[in-house]
Amino acid sequence: MNRLHVPVSLRWSDLDAYQHVNNVEMFRLLEDARITAFWRHPEAEDPWPTAILDTGPHATSHTLVAGQQIEYLRPLQFSRDPVRVEMWIGSLGGASLEVCYEVHDGAPGGFARTGPPSGAEPYTRAVTTIVVIDAASGSPRRITPEERAVFEEFSGDPIEFRRRR
Amino acid sequence: MNRLHVPVSLRWSDLDAYQHVNNVEMFRLLEDARITAFWRHPEAEDPWPTAILDTGPHATSHTLVAGQQIEYLRPLQFSRDPVRVEMWIGSLGGASLEVCYEVHDGAPGGFARTGPPSGAEPYTRAVTTIVVIDAASGSPRRITPEERAVFEEFSGDPIEFRRRR
Amino acid sequence: MNRLHVPVSLRWSDLDAYQHVNNVEMFRLLEDARITAFWRHPEAEDPWPTAILDTGPHATSHTLVAGQQIEYLRPLQFSRDPVRVEMWIGSLGGASLEVCYEVHDGAPGGFARTGPPSGAEPYTRAVTTIVVIDAASGSPRRITPEERAVFEEFSGDPIEFRRRR
Amino acid sequence: MNRLHVPVSLRWSDLDAYQHVNNVEMFRLLEDARITAFWRHPEAEDPWPTAILDTGPHATSHTLVAGQQIEYLRPLQFSRDPVRVEMWIGSLGGASLEVCYEVHDGAPGGFARTGPPSGAEPYTRAVTTIVVIDAASGSPRRITPEERAVFEEFSGDPIEFRRRR
Fold first, then answer.
1. pLDDT > 80? residue C46
2. Which of A88, B60, C44, C160 registers the highest number of CB atoms within 10 A of its CB?
3. Considering chain D, what is the average pLDDT of its residues?
């Protein structure tokens, strides 16, 4: 199983009055990782393998967050070193996908962009359901074969959350 | 079924580049509603019925967010009028509880603090699992009978999310 | 001298790890007050007297923040009660204006929308320089006589900051 | 004149509904640069030369932001590449200092931690007045000779803002 390993820098303002990264702010870190890894930027010279979702004012499609789930396992302290967000695709539908995340300490010697699961207990596990939208019609559109091939390269098991709802 | 009806003011900065309330920021609104309704503030003259969880530097207990789940049903635009966050307790354990939320338009003529479900389709539905922690030991502590009696007054059915995991 | 008195709700997330409203977040509160008081919203039934600046996707003009200055006089704690942001126009140019602010405790019995300076020592004093932009050309445009008449009603002395630069 | 050159990563959430880095969020980037460069972190293996201000729960001193001023010269777009915040000390008092900033595009080939002014027109120029506080007494304390020597290494001319107040 191949995962994306995305470095995300913390900000001191991610801390709340308890001096840990705030539970809401954790979703901000995940958003940051997701945009880094998935969105195609016109200016990017060295894109991530998954950077295939168009964005920006002239994009022909965009994405919509339909739902999210998260589990906080350990409090995350502030550090100058970025965290490593491991990401994979837990489920791939016709027009939607589930992006899974684990937040880990960053590797001190730099980041390989992809790699196997680190195996350590993460700070947090989460999943975001994303729907791909056709910008012209505003309706969901099918994931293209090109997109599907890339996403399948990073497919993995869905997260089993401890609490079922 | 009795719900808390908590007004929460939007901020223009809750909007993202798509000009809707950002999906992460929605958790911020829910956090705000939760703290308004549940936390006891020394200065409060007119507390919410559920404002029974101690807080602040000398509190004997505090709370920990163990997990969250959310479903976005409709985009929320900026408005000067606060939204109405309807809250209830979907599940009550020994040391934990599940706070359920629906985000609705606010009533133009003011807010009753408690009331029945509004019945309209919400913008968002969500649940937060909270664990009550003894400040001295740092470990979960049992919900007291006094707290339990208040929470039971606002108990209701857990949310059935459309996507199961 | 007539001031706008704008209520702004705090959020628990405005606190930083020092458990005061964070110095950056203070600008967020001021932004919120400014947008409440100055921007015209299509949906607003009871606009502020100064709500004459068009906004939104079809607006013919928008505004640009050119600069800001702030002085923090006392730390602001979290409270359920909104703060009262007193606002006035410290300077009015051809295409720009300086919005002045003082942050005070809110009046317990509700807010008059306009009134004299409260006279108490504020938590914070600040000024924002705003330039009015023609949406079609992207260039500064002259403040109209209608806008000018409203702004002049709330004109007052510029803030004398303690530290000069 | 020697400046600190601090890389700061943007977040997509720094954008506001105008799709530029929000004017308030710009202070967030500056806060991030300041904390990266000045605060001593127990875990840091490779600290910045200026990382001499204690912090954290057991710190013997902390700092207080007394005032800020900013000028926005050009809108900043979202980019995957971090910006380069150039920082220097514009003024050094008995217990206070003025940290000056310019925000520039980041160098593509990596960051030298210190260097001369880049000379290009910045996106933003700003200054923060910081007071050093003795944690035990809560009062301002004198900047130590050790601290002063480091700050003087990065002293430079105060910023001349275009608009005087």
1. no
2. A88
3. 88
3-state secondary structure chain D: CCEEEEEECCCHHHECCCCCECHHHHHHHHHHHHHHHHECCCCCCCCCCCCCECCCCCCCEEEEEEEEEEEECCCCCCCCCCEEEEEEEEEECCCEEEEEEEEEECCCCCCCCEECCCCCCCCEEEEEEEEEEECCCCCECCCCHHHHHHHHHCECCCCCCCCCC
CA proximity to B30, closest of B79, B72, B93: B72
> Helix D23-38 to helix C23-38 angle, to the nearest 10 degrees?
180
Could you tell me if the ipTM is greater than 0.95? no
Question: Residue B99 maps to which CATH number?
Answer: 3.10.129.10
Nearest Cα of chain C lies from the Cα of D31 at a distance, in angstroms, of 8
Q: For residue range C83-137, list pLDDT tens digits in order.
A: 999 999 999 999 999 999 999 998 655 567 888 998 889 999 999 999 999 989 9
Residues of D in contact with C62 (CB under 8 A): 18
Nearest CA-CA partner of D21 in D79, D65, D68? D79
Residue A116, domain member (yes or no): yes
Range of the domain at C35: 3-153
As a whole number of angstroms, the distance between CA D103 and CA D122 comes to 5
Residue B8 belongs to some domain of the structure: yes
pLDDT exceeds cutoff 60 at C44: no
Set of chain C residues whose Cβ sits within 8 Å of the Cβ of A11: none
Q: What is the pTM of this model?
A: 0.91
Residues in a beta bridge with D3: D115
Task: Give A22 or D44, the one with higher predicted confidence.
Answer: A22
A165 has pLDDT over 60: no
Q: What is the pLDDT of residue B151?
A: 93
Which chain A residues have a beta carbon less than 8 Å from that of B72? Answer: 64-67
In a domain, C164, yes or no: no
Pick out chain B residues at pLDDT < 50: 165
Partner-chain contact C24 D31, CB within 8 Å: yes
Nearest residue to D67 via CA among D99, D35, D90, D93: D99
CA distance B99 to B88: 6
Sheet harboring D3-8: ordered strands across?
A: C114-115, C3-8, C83-92, C96-105, C124-134, C61-72, D61-72, D124-134, D96-105, D83-92, D3-8, D114-115
The answer to the question of residue B143 being in a domain is yes
Average pLDDT, chain B: 88
Radius of gyration of chain D (CA): 16
Domain tally, chain A: 1
Cβ distance of D28 and A19 shorter than 8 Å: no
Residue A149's pLDDT band (cuts 50, 70, 90)? very high
Mean pLDDT of A111-117: 84
Strand order from edge to edge, sheet including B3-8: A114-115, A3-8, A83-92, A96-105, A124-134, A61-72, B61-72, B124-134, B96-105, B83-92, B3-8, B114-115
